[in-house]
């Protein structure tokens, strides 16, 4: 059973994840990515989907044309865990590589 | 310039699109698709993305694990047009083929 991050660890993790923020009304973190166009946005989603499936940890996300809004939380733990940090880190790497 | 559907045409189109409904607070139509798992849900999204790019008409959509919630509207027309009917029809066909 994976555990929710301590406040200290969560602050530390968010400090290393630019643009990721706590969600106001639930225990989750979120970020909105913006790309040049739909092709780039969906390309990002496709690469992330492969990583998510491999990690067996999936984002909640929405896409409107060239933006992708992501929320991460670990349902089994009822909050943010190292799994979310790992997926957020992978998303930032993929978005950086695509930009 | 593409025009918004007449009420008659819109009713007719929705009658042929099971599960699609008017959105309460804006001029748009919406449907939530549910698949066996994330693999199937994202596979659906990938096939739809290719169609959307070809049509140059893109959905607003969100994905949480095995569900995909879609909203369609034509921004240039400020409402629902034949472009949305075409994309909704393609989505239903793809979802049916994937199921």
Automatic annotation (TrEMBL), chains A, B:
Belongs to the pterin-4-alpha-carbinolamine dehydratase family. It comes from Rhodoplanes roseus. One of its GO terms (biological process) is tetrahydrobiopterin biosynthetic process. PANTHER family: PTERIN-4-ALPHA-CARBINOLAMINE DEHYDRATASE. It catalyses: (4aS,6R)-4a-hydroxy-L-erythro-5,6,7,8-tetrahydrobiopterin = (6R)-L-erythro-6,7-dihydrobiopterin + H2O. HAMAP family: Pterin_4_alpha. Keywords: Lyase. The lineage of its organism: Bacteria, Pseudomonadati, Pseudomonadota, Alphaproteobacteria, Hyphomicrobiales. Its EC number is 4.2.1.96. SUPFAM superfamilies: PCD-like (SSF55248). Gene3D superfamilies: Transcriptional coactivator/pterin dehydratase. This is Putative pterin-4-alpha-carbinolamine dehydratase. Signal peptide: none annotated. GO terms for molecular function: 4-alpha-hydroxytetrahydrobiopterin dehydratase activity.
């Amino acid at each position: 059973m994976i555990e929710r991050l301590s406040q200290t660890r969560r602050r530390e993790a968010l400090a290393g994840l630019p643009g990721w923020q706590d969600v106001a009304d639930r225990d989750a973190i979120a970020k909105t990515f913006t790309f040049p166009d739909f092709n780039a946005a969906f390309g990002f989603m496709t690469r992330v989907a492969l990583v998510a499936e491999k990690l067996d940890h999936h984002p909640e996300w929405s896409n409107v044309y060239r933006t992708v809004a992501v929320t991460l939380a670990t349902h089994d733990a009822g909050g943010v865990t190292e799994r979310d940090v790992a997926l957020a880190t992978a998303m930032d790497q993929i978005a950086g590589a695509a930009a």
